[in-house]
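Below is how a single chain appears once it has passed through the pipeline. First comes the sequence as given, then the structure the pipeline wrote out for it. We keep one example in the README because the format questions we get most often are answered faster by looking than by reading.
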Amino acid sequence: MKGKIINRKILKRKTGLIRILTALAAAVLLTCCAGIGLAGAIPDLHTVEPEASAGAFQFRNGAGWGDTAAAIQEKEGQAMVERKQGDWAILYTQSRVEVSRYFADLVYMFYQDKLRMITYDFGTDSGSGSFGYLTGALSSVYGEMSEAESGDVIRVMDQIYPGYYSESLVTGVKQWTAADGTLIYLYYYAAEAFAILYVSPSAGIPGGGQYITNGL
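Resulting structure:
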């Protein structure tokens, strides 16, 4: 009974972003049917993952694009929750992890057991000035920052949960590009709630860029 109570508390703590990511299967089905395309900077998901090189993106604890869920769990070395549906899976920490000088929920996203996206969800708990501080911190790691459009984030997240974000919700979008083409976004998704999203160069979703042309 005690274990069940603890699990309920953990689940209640999870932010909206983690809850929506558990609906990946339905979202992917909708995306494929709708033929929603990604921005040109994000190629097809079925692109073969290149071998690691000196310029390859490296995340915390040595995680890299193309890693399996089992490899990520081993590298994280802590209890994580996995949700699977079809070709998709997500893996997230049961407790918040330290990021810079703050704490966030950490979510890894896989397609056919290959890591494709990562997000840190800070919610509203990080305090005043944290968004600005993280902007500077990310620039110190990835170089020059550029202002991005809300649509850039929405196009990516629509592949996971179509229609969840609107331009009025996603604001203050900052973007960095790593040496291997990895895209990094820092943005607000609600009042005072913000996230960092890392997108693999191979993170296109099935159906992206594929249009139904019958009758055209």
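The first strand starts at residue 80 and ends at 85.

See the next section for the split statistics.
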